[in-house]
Amino acid sequence: RKKIILDLDTGIDDTLALSYVLASPEAELIGITGTYGNVVRDRGVANDLDLLSLFGRDDIPVFKGIDHPSTTDSFRVPPDSEIFHGANGTGNIEIPAHSTRQAETVGSVDFIIDSVRRHAKGELVVVPTGALTSIAAALEKAPDIIDKITIVLMGGSLTQPGNVGPFAEANINQDPEAADRVFSTQADITMIGLDVTTQVLMSREDTRALRSIGTEQGRFLADMTDYYIDISEKESGIYLGGCNLHDPLAAAVAIDPTLVTTFATNLMVETEGPQRGRTIGDPSRLLDPVKRTKVALGVDSERFTRRFMDRLLTLAAG
Ligand code: BDR
Ligand code: CA
């Protein structure tokens, strides 16, 4: 089974990504590392612990990552994130379980480093779905892991407008400097950006199916996702008929890379001016014969969304 570490800013679609991995028989979640973004780190970690308890998986350890961007001393949740994910990260729907567990005393950075060292290349995939600060710190603290780590991240955009500005996607925008440092390494990175995540939707019909199972897990996932669908439509002014499954797609590709087609290139992140937070080809590595980052540009939406819903329904059935 493929070993997975989720680096979450939990978050509605982060919750759905976690649910998907827990419901995937060919994956083993070996730990959750908490970052910041949709919520402050400690809120995200508390959500992770409660969610694991809700799904009866108190055996999975949770770690705390760095709680603020590399260029500032503190972090405040951007107003947009609070609107999209609610003040508590789960659409103002309370998680119907309360964990008495704490996060581990070792931090995310060391857990990621140790885990990469302990596994053969390709056995473990790290899936960041929030700010990349701790991932950058791990690669810097232990450069020996750069050749061994596999990263499938949700973030960025190459062909679509940004979602927190004309160019920037939210996760990259939380810490563009850290994201730039991650892309500048030789690490094996697949970028699941808005190019593909805007192609995969969860609909109100899907949430109805989850609710009709009649369990508290099903009701919680349905209520939380309905909040996300409503707010996505309200904010965009477009009837989408659903919400984007940003983070679940990254988790799914980590487990099954055949869900997307990719374009290999060398990326950088703009850190200055009005394009701050933009992911774009790195002109200084344009002629480099080795193209490091696989950017997903095509997705088998039907195969993914069918599998996603099948698994969520099974998980919610308990
Ligand atoms: C990303 O930003 C966060 O709001 C979501 O959880 C997702 O990781 C989408 O741009
Ligand atoms: Ca996220």
TrEMBL record:
Keywords from the UniProt entry: Glycosidase, Hydrolase
Molecular function GO terms recorded: hydrolase activity
Record's keyword annotation contains Thylakoid: no
UniProt keyword annotation of Nucleus present: no
The Inosine/uridine-preferring nucleoside hydrolase domain, residue ranges: 4-305
Protein name per Swiss-Prot or TrEMBL: Nucleoside hydrolase
